[in-house]
Write a structure and sequence with these properties.
Length: about 900
Amino acid sequence: MSRYDPSVIEPRWQEAWDKAGAFTARRDPAKPKYYVLEMFPYPSGRIHMGHVRNYTMGDVVARTKLAQGYSVLHPMGWDAFGMPAENAAMERGGHPKDWTYGNIADMKAQMKPLGLSIDWSRELATCDPEYYGQQQAMFIDMMEAGLVYRKAAVVNWDPVDMTVLANEQVIDGKGWRSGAVVERRELTQWFFKISDYSEELLSALDGLTHWPEKVRLMQANWIGKSRGLQFGFKTVGAPAGFDTLEVYTTRPDTLMGASFAAISADHPLARALEGDPKIAAFVAECRRGGTSAEEIETAEKIGYDTGIRVQHPLDPNWELPVWIANFILMDYGTGAIFGCPAHDQRDFDFATKYRLPIKAVFAADGAEDAALAEAYVPMKSERVRYVRGFAGAEVQTGDEAVATAIAHAETHGYGTGVTKFRLRDWGVSRQRYWGCPIPVIHCAGCGVVPEAKANLPIELPYDVSFDVPGNPLDRHPTWRDCTCPKCGAAARRETDTMDTFVDSSWYYARFTAPRATTPTVLEDADYWMNVDQYIGGIEHAILHLLYSRFFARAMHKTGHLPAKAIEPFNALFTQGMVTHEIYMTRDAQGRPVYHLPEDVTVFNVADRRIVVKGNVPPPVDMIDDVDAFIRALSDEGLLVEVIPSAKMSKSKKNVVDPNDIIAAYGADTARWFVMSDSPPERDVEWTASGAEAAFKHLNRVWTLCDRIGQMPADHQGEGDNDLARATAKAIDEVTKGIEGFAFNKAIASLYAFANTLAKANASTPVMKEAIRTLAKLMSPMTPHIAEDIWAYQGGIGLCAEAPWPKADPALLVDDTVTLPIQINGKRRAEISVPKDMPIPEVEKIALADEAVIRFLAGQPVKKIIVVPGRIINVVA
RNA sequence: GCCCGCGUGGUGGAAUGGUAGACACAGGGGACUUAAAAUCCCUCGGCUGAAAGGCCAUGCCGGUUCAAAUCCGGCCGCGGGCACCA
């Protein structure tokens, strides 16, 4: 064996895997199947370390499952529609399609050297007509199933560019290009009826036992089931047709603390009042700014008293003013509320600002009805004393009070208990070019008509220009013109395209039959679904996963997925980001200037870490005064400020190009490093020293393999039993680490095992068996070096296809255990006892221990707790 | 603003109610070398002590428990999401 040279061995083994078709997924009824999927990338053009980490995790799982005898599906594709392609076309010219496919080719070329066990024959891009044509077919099926409808909804409108903006394109309430203040404007849009499934999407979360608890909780909160009271206020002085004002509240128990009613600026009543120029101006003011919840809820709370009054349902003589307020959302409840300032902080702020009364309804049990400095909002499960209650006991929990208040309203006929969800229907219309065209036709005679399936795919026209803001499909001369599939008359195509979340809501199903001329093939879907392990970023915890769960149900309803696939992801793992520290200096104006990691030099001088701009030789022998040295560097503008690690981003230049790392150390080193050190669900900080350490370790394993290879065949050693035990332990720990998504722990075990093996003095066959096992255990993480060691040490066939080792259970248990002894919870001694020793005997030995006697100093023992195999605690 | 996380040595982390700091990085000391690199060995939370040992220590404050990094309550700091970023 020669020097460890990844640039030679890595391409060689990748070719060998290709030739053997090792990773081609095949339906094999004789084997259990395993479908592992990483969230597919957006083709930005460059892979980054986050991709490397994500795909390496999936690869570790896929390779382990393959070795464990599963028929594995591990595909890859491209989430290829979206705004960046159009932005690139606007900024640099060119066409979104060319830009996207060029990026896909570039990224694929960058991914290949990683040696991932991907079945590339199933590759797909969502911008392929082959893919989005099937999506259009499903859209039509969903229309027929009643899951699609149109309604008016608000968008961010840029009044200068005359175009709709994404939330991302609204910066501080202004359009990102024009700088104009954005308005909220209504547009007729396409919607999926995800709300039909609110209850089911919520209750089915309980069955997702292999999902992170936090993701399930976030989804549950997002769906937001609430029980409340809906009732109508009788109005006084309202325009015709507004005799009652319907409101919904989750706190009907606070009805006696009401001090005003408030409606959204988009409420029909507010619109009816727009004849009044003052109200029109106020409503226009409310519509300024973007549509995002963050912007609306952090905006200053403003209101306008309409002069209209409503009668309190429990006392017709008690009238409340009706305000229009900017923090009331038309999308939730009825778009109208009653305000109870004493028990809602937002209402409290509003009431304080506009000098409205603040009356407490309840107080902490035992507390006085004191004046409030802020809203008193205890947990609903807490017992409080009602000072202005009207139903139920004086002292009760909030939950009890809500229930009794609803019962009271229903008994007296002024309101109804209603269950509502926060989840809104999914608006899928986008006024953009680079997306899946909505396959619908507007006919003067027939109205809105779905396109005939025979005409699918409705392909995007290529001849478009991006020199004017807005959707090029709207101004395309011929694409819009078509004939009505129903009556044959001249008609116009829908020019809205679909939200890119639609594309990513079913790609996992398409991978089971990526070339089919129907969206799916049931036989394939039935074999491969569900995804056994889905891996991706925590940033997708809500939207992408919720939409996918809905879409799988819709696909089942329309006959494209079997019933078992309505929850498409059996297990979910959300991985952390790859971060890097940021290197910054300042220019003459004091503005920050960022530097790439490769453009700085890091010195470790004593316990100081000094970062210097440029590539300079070590200063240690040039200076003996570190502080003076730092001052000198600072004066010359060479001293670099180190900002703590953050997600890698181009703007901060804290990026490391995976291909540079592969060129310097090989893919195995990159893979090993991103899997080591940090637990996969947490962020991992990329450090140059960490990558180098990984490379050094692989070199050590390589030379160890060489040394074992050169051992005389008849060498005898006394360490056979110890090494066999260490090997069994490594198998056990690495297997558990991988299966439990604790790759960092699996790697720590592999370090320990390699160190043990390097020091072991065992017979040649035992040494060879151990190094082959090491190679096999390393192979999910570092597949290339593993193959080389495997081949060199006489492994049969490809390491990638060799079965996963099994640990001999007899070698995993130790005969004696070391038990620490605590006295009053502090560790004072330890004893070694046979593993199966009965508790009374352990107690006897513990109490007879010299150190225990010394620490007890004659105090009587009150209690002794023995946790078998773990610890002894003596309470004195 | 609302929802959800996270916080342990100089650093990444291990320990998921039972010996805090596995494994690794950085640092310190040594071997080899003319020298350096590479490699190998030792050491490595703080205070105290000649040593044995003792005391302190898991963001901060309080609680539950024989026992808390771990469970509960409050606070501080950081991160993710908020429906047209993907």
